Amino acid sequence: MNSWSWSVVQEFMPRFWDGVIITLEALALGTLIAFTLGLFWALAQRSSVRWIRVPVVAFTEFVRNTPLLVQLFFLFYVVPEWGPSMSALTTGIVGLGLHYSTYTAEVYRAGIDGVPAGQWEAATALNLPRVHTWRAVILPQAIRRVVPALGNYVVAMLKDSPMIAVIGALDMLGEARAFSNETFTSEALTVVGVAFILIAYPASLLMRYLERRLVH
Amino acid sequence: MMTSEFFESWFLPGIWITIQVTVYSAVLAAVVSFTVGTLRTSQFWIVRFLAGIYFEIFRGTSALVFMFWMAFAVPLLFGVQFLPMGAGVLALGLTYGAYGSEIVRGALAAVAPAQREAGIALNFTRMQRLRRIELPQAWPEMVPPFNNLLIELLKGTALVSVITVADMTFSGNLLRLATNASAPIYTLLLVLYFVLAFVLTRGMRVLERQAKAGIGQTPPSSGLFSGLRSKSTDTAVTGGVK
């Protein structure tokens, strides 16, 4: 290595931790949106009303198959023209949450499809109201099976979260870029790159453990 | 608004660059997938271990951070300067190759053990078994997950715009700076990416049909608008490789 200096790393550390907090904040709130909105999409896709089902399927399919980066640009530059103006971080959180909600919708759908038909029939036989059937019979069984898959998408979201730096949020990558530009050094990028691996690896180990415990 | 001159000098070449980046990184990712995926089924533990380390490291890597690192940190650290497109293609190919290696490994592991044993009984070498027996049977299983991965890769190519490769996202941003008409530009961009993903899916469906025909299966026919991804209940439940 030609130019590696630990003192530069030392100097970057305070800003690195600021970035970690922003990244985790974006991840936590993005996950919250993705999990709730995804369940909403999954239920809407099963609706018996054609006018709800078809647009929701089309919308989620479109969002899932177009780049998150361009969606972030869209939310950041287009939405304020006829809607609320949001900070870069808020835009990033909404973008991450919305994008990944279309993935979690698929996960919930698979989980719901995996609940045996006998459970539905039992709920009908017991004359349970529709809301009760979902809340007390179907969803608990469906969600238990898909927890590891949902977790994997949290890890995937973590790895996509640096995209919010492109619209100006000061997450780990945003701090590293700002620091590198001010000091003409490159250590910060390496630190952040290693940090992602160090966070993502234990997280994916945890998901594999959950998969063994909950799915099989 | 969008002048035809700008459109011809920036936007159309941008589409072409996006297609090029997609093709180059898909080829690199395919090479990495098959190499690492096969090595992960090796009989030597050290080979399995090293290939496993590659998989774990690149699966934990954020493609965007890696791309920045290749473009801005590697020249300072090692004195190697890539062309921007080279850095982007390498970063995408290496990361998506790691995901692909899991597809290859899984499909090889799913080939019936008796097939491998038959190859051994016939005195095939390891390479002959792989080429003549295991890969041909594993290949049809790989095509649908590769389709999903290819769409992820296409979406990932938008990232090269931030390391100054003039792909269509890059030219879209230029156009916004020049005209301030962000709504039509980004809508057009999203639609273009969707169209490309749609075209890729149709191509992969043809490939799947051929691959399955090769082992005497017919995949269930899916309508033109049946969604771009193959929906496997199993991968959705376990999260697949993502």
What would you say this structure looks like, in words?
Chain A is built from eight helices and no strands. With 216 residues, chain A is mainly alpha-helical. Chain A has a single domain, classed as Orthogonal Bundle (MetI-like fold), CATH 1.10.3720. In chain A, helix 1 (6-45) crosses helix 4 (88-113) and helix 7 packs antiparallel against helix 8. Chain A is elongated. The model of chain A has no long low-confidence stretch (mean pLDDT 90). Chain B is an all-alpha fold. Chain B has one domain (4-238): MetI-like fold. Helices cover 77% and strands 0% of the residues of chain B. Chain B has nine helices and no strands. Chain B has helices spanning 4-39, 45-60, 63-78, 84-110, 113-121, 126-156, 168-179, 182-214, 233-238. Classes of the chains: A mainly alpha (216), B mainly alpha (242). Chains A and B meet through helix 2, helix 3, helix 4, helix 6 and helix 7 of A and helix 2, helix 3, helix 6, helix 7 and helix 8 of B.
What portion of the residues of chain B fall into strands of 2 or more residues?
A: under 5%
Major sheet summary line of chain B:
none
The average pLDDT score of chain A comes to: 90
- Helix-residue proportion of chain B: over 70%
Q: How would you name the oligomeric state of the polypeptide chains in this document?
A: heterodimer
Provide the domain count of chain B.
1
The first-level CATH class of chain A is given as: Mainly Alpha
Helix percent band of chain A: over 70%
Shape of chain A: elongated
| CATH architecture designation of chain B | Orthogonal Bundle
| N-to-C CA distance of chain A | 47 Å
Going by helix content, strand content and strand pairing, the class of chain A is mainly alpha
What is the CATH topology of chain A?
Answer: MetI-like fold
- Total count of strands of chain B: 0
> In CATH, what is the class of chain B?
Mainly Alpha
**SSE order of chain A, one letter for each helix or strand:** HHHHHHHH
The third-level CATH topology of chain B is MetI-like fold
Q: Give the strand tally of chain A.
A: 0
- The first-to-last residue Cα distance of chain B is 40 Å
* Number of helical segments with 4 or more residues of chain B: 9
